Amino acid sequence: MITAIIGSQWGDEGKGKIVDLLAEEADLVIRFNGGNNAGHTVINQYGRTALHLIPSGIFNAKTICVIGNGAVIHPPSLWLEIKELIKKGISLKNLKISSRAHLVMPWHLILDGLQENSRGQNKIGTTNRGIGPAYMDKISREGLRMIDLLDKKTFKAKSLFLLKEKLNFLKSSPGKKINEFEREIDEYLIYGQKLKKFIIQTEFLIWQATEKNKKIFLEGAQGTFLDLDFGTYPFVTSSYTTSAGACLGSGIPPLKIDEVTGVTKAYTTRVGEGPFPTELKNQLGKTIREKGNEYGATTGRPRRCGWFDAVLVRYASLLNGFGNLALTKLDILDFFKTIKICTAYQLNGKQINYPPPAPSQFFRLKPVYEELKGWQKSTIKCRSFGELPKEAKKYLKRIEELVRVKIKIISVGAKREETIRL
Ligand code: IMP
Question: How far apart (Å, rounded) are the C-alpha atoms in residues 63 and 61?
Fold first, then answer.
């Protein structure tokens, strides 16, 4: 059984909690895209942990956790994450890293900042983790990969060549001098030795597990609308965040995926720049942020908050092939008198029910809302659908109708047990 867990909005949907929950039954969890721009917060017997690169299945001693070929890795950050987990007493014996995963080099971080500065008003609001520049090198066929870390001579020669190529751009940064980058290249080789035991051709391990009908979860990072092709381009990340990306970034053949679960928050958030039709730029938005603790797990930036956008989640469902939904943070809406759902958009006086491709149009969308009565009762202790207040049930049923997908999991709190399985 192979299940892809995909964010249906702009990331931060709570995929970490859902994967941690499902990982109890998982043989394999695979991260297939992005890098340490992601922040998957998991709260369990080990306390609160923010994972950035390591799959959220790592807390289950029996689960093999793979960082797939589609991810990009910044070795110093990965090493820090490994050390943090070891400190908490979590075993890393089951961590495997694809030899094909690309490296985020020290200059990628600087280039990320320089590119953002040059974009001025049109900046993307990246996480500044060098993700875009690392994927640029991958696409231009100049990137360095995990496997290169294990071949000292070639790695040094290739990275010095690349550094030279980038120097023209890097000159405009007051930051680092060339000899500092050279020192960091040597440090990468040391990380290579530390990480050596984790680096393998993960595709073989994955195919073996597939043949044996093992339970595999593909853990998406970011969300559908940050996808390089189908997101709100150019305000997107540089990887493929969808179920198609899950195949590309892991080596799993498309026909082997049995199920796609869309993770969706009971409202919408976005961090960084870009269009967001249902954004609440008022006190209500601030209230959602405070109640939902909507601050980036990676950068600490406040997230922009707004009502649930059914147009987006329906589109995400068509694109990813959601078979079911895991809806998170329902409890954050416990206190509202009325709750809105966006059911369509107005654009140039016409009603549309899809996200348009041009950012100029996207920025001008006016949401068409349906207003529902709030439940104004705590849901955190509910453990079955029947126990939920009647208005909460109505809200969930309406989401199912609009998105045309059944909800399978409802999260009513941050802890594992604060969950309703349907
Ligand atoms: P980058 O991935 O750092 O290049 O950032 C590109 C865009 O994706 C920015 O708007 C970021 O805020 C957003 N982004 C990247 N990773 C995440 C994530 O894990 N959650 C939410 N937004 C993200």
Answer: 6
Tokens of 233: 């381009």
d(CA 422, CA 420): 6
Indicate which residues carry an active-site annotation: 12, 40
Q: Which helix (H) or strand (E) holds 64?
A: strand 64-67
Locus of tokens 């089951």: 94
- Asked if residue 239 has its Cβ within 6 Å of ligand 1, the reply is no
Distance CA 96, CA 371 (A): 47
Q: What is the pLDDT along the chain (422 residues), one digit of tens a residue?
A: 999 999 999 999 999 999 989 888 899 999 999 999 998 888 889 999 989 999 999 999 999 999 999 999 999 999 999 999 999 999 999 999 999 999 999 999 999 999 999 999 999 999 999 999 999 999 999 999 999 999 999 999 999 999 999 988 887 777 677 888 999 999 999 999 999 999 999 999 999 999 999 999 999 999 999 999 999 999 999 999 999 999 999 999 999 999 999 999 999 999 999 999 999 999 999 999 999 999 988 888 999 999 999 999 999 999 999 999 999 999 999 999 999 999 999 999 999 999 999 999 999 999 999 999 999 999 999 999 999 999 999 999 999 999 999 999 999 999 999 999 99
Give CA–CA dist 8/268, Å, rounded.
10
Contact between residue 316 and residue 308 where contact means Cβ atoms under 8 Å apart: no
Across the beta sheet with 28-31, the strand order is 199-200, 95-98, 64-67, 28-31, 216-219, 2-7, 259-265, 324-328, 407-411, 419-421
Inter-CA distances, 331 with 239, 380, 417, Å = 31, 6, 14
Q: Which atom of ligand 1 is nearest to the CA of 131?
A: 4
- The secondary structure of residue 303, as a DSSP letter, is P
Tokens of 184: 């960091």
The rounded distance, in Å, linking the Cα atoms of 201 and 97 is: 8
131 lines ligand 1 (CB under 6 A): yes
Ligand 1 proximity of 237 Cβ (cutoff 6 Å): yes
User: Strand pairing partners for 4?
Assistant: 218, 260
Distance 348 CA to ligand 1 centre (A): 30
233 vs 374: CA distance, rounded Å: 34
Contact 222, 9 (CB under 8 A): no
Helix, strand, coil percent values for the chain (each to nearest 5): 40, 20, 40
